[in-house]
Design a protein that fits this description.
The chain is an alpha+beta fold. The chain is 31% helix and 27% strand. The protein binds adenosine-5'-diphosphate (ADP) and magnesium ion. The site of magnesium ion has 5 residues, from helix 2. Residues 201-319 form the DNA mismatch repair protein S5 domain.
Length: 323
């Protein structure tokens, strides 16, 4: 069991950013309206994610740290219509296997809180606690018991870069959630949770950038598209300015990138890319997210249709803007 957790940890917990991703996605899945993320030393020393979501029932808290304990899939056919961000029940046991983890959670129905501490996979405390509604997860000394993994960690700035990138994108994906992100005491991102995506774009990229973003909206019978794209005068040196969000999940998609680039094709100089935040909604049955444990890759059932929806919508917005 402990070994299985360490093996799974190798897949799920590649670096501090993976821990932040899993904890924040759990917070989002729990219906939180505020999520506070605090890290130290690029996340290697300290990661804390505190949310105000529905919490973990006191009686379930130890179970949540067992492998494949997910409250998010009822039957195996549910795997084909996954709507929440998590679904494998691998994250918490994997993280707890390679760190010192403390979880304090109070669930919304009973109001009872419980605290559990797990060090290198072994429970060292499990007791009643006092806490406002929500879940507070602290992960210290990541990889302290897996020195081979620790050795692969890059400079603090590099790890911070990965975390910051992820936090920015999950904030862009969920403008209705107020995110705060602090590193070594400095606030790096604060969003208001008002649902205004332009506010989040301003918080992430600056208010001058937000001013040159154009709204896009389109739909066909299978897909809904909405978001913002940059005017062609605002270009970037790489594709990192493209954020694709599929059913609330930030993903990397070659198909989405291609469709966008195709639409900007004649407008951008060579080797320049647009900035875009595109949210794509669809029936979960049209989406296969079960490609990789990190859940970054997806497959679309009707990829060609989606590509033309994006390409046409973006082209239309860009040409309207030039007239
Ligand atoms: P998954 O997200 O795939 O279900 P995890 O290992 O990430 O698996 O979490 C296990 C379970 O713990 C979740 O299914 C959920 O019930 C509970 N849980 C974890 N984090 C939170 C949180 N922040 N708020 C409420 N419940 C949580
Ligand atoms: Mg999860």
């Amino acid at each position: 069991e402990q070994l299985a957790n360490q093996i799974a940890a190798g897949e799920v917990v590649e670096r501090p950013a993976s821990v932040v991703k899993e904890l924040v996605e759990n917070a989002v899945d729990a219906g939180s309206t505020t999520v506070d993320i605090t890290i130290e030393e690029g996340g290697l020393a300290f990661i804390r994610v505190a949310d105000n979501g529905y919490g973990i029932e006191a009686g379930d808290i130890a179970t949540a740290f067992q492998r494949h304990a997910t409250s998010k899939i009822a039957t195996s056919s549910d795997l084909f219509r996954i709507a929440s961000l998590g679904f494998r029940g691998e994250a918490l046991p994997s993280i707890a296997a390679v760190s010192r983890l403390e979880c304090v959670s109070a669930d919304s129905s009973s109001g009872l809180a419980r605290r559990i501490v797990i060090e290198g996979g072994a429970i060292t405390a499990d007791e009643p606690a006092n806490s406002p509604q929500g879940t507070d997860m602290t992960v210290k000394d990541l990889f302290y018991n897996t020195p081979a993994r620790l050795k692969y960690m890059k400079a603090i700035q590099t790890e911070l870069g990965h975390i910051s990138d992820y936090v920015n994108r999950i904030a862009l994906a969920h403008p209705g959630i107020a995110f705060t992100f602090k590193h070594n005491g400095n606030v790096l991102l604060r969003t208001l949770g008002t649902g205004d995506r332009l506010q989040v774009i301003a918080a992430v990229y600056g208010s001058n950038t937000a001013k040159v973003m154009l709204p896009v909206e389109a739909e066909n019978s299978d897909y809904e598209l909405r978001g913002f794209i940059s005017k062609p005068e605002l270009t970037r040196a790489n594709r990192n300015g493209i954020t694709a969000i599929v059913n609330g999940r930030y993903i990397r998609s070659h198909a989405v990138n291609q469709a966008l680039m195709q639409a900007y094709h004649t407008l951008l100089p060579i080797n320049r890319y647009p900035l875009a935040v595109l949210e794509i909604g669809m029936h979960p049955g049209l989406l296969d997210v079960n490609v990789h444990p990190s859940k970054m890759e997806v497959r679309f059932s009707k990829e060609a249709d989606l590509r033309s929806l994006i390409e046409d919508a973006v082209k239309q917005v860009l040409s309207r803007q030039r007239h």
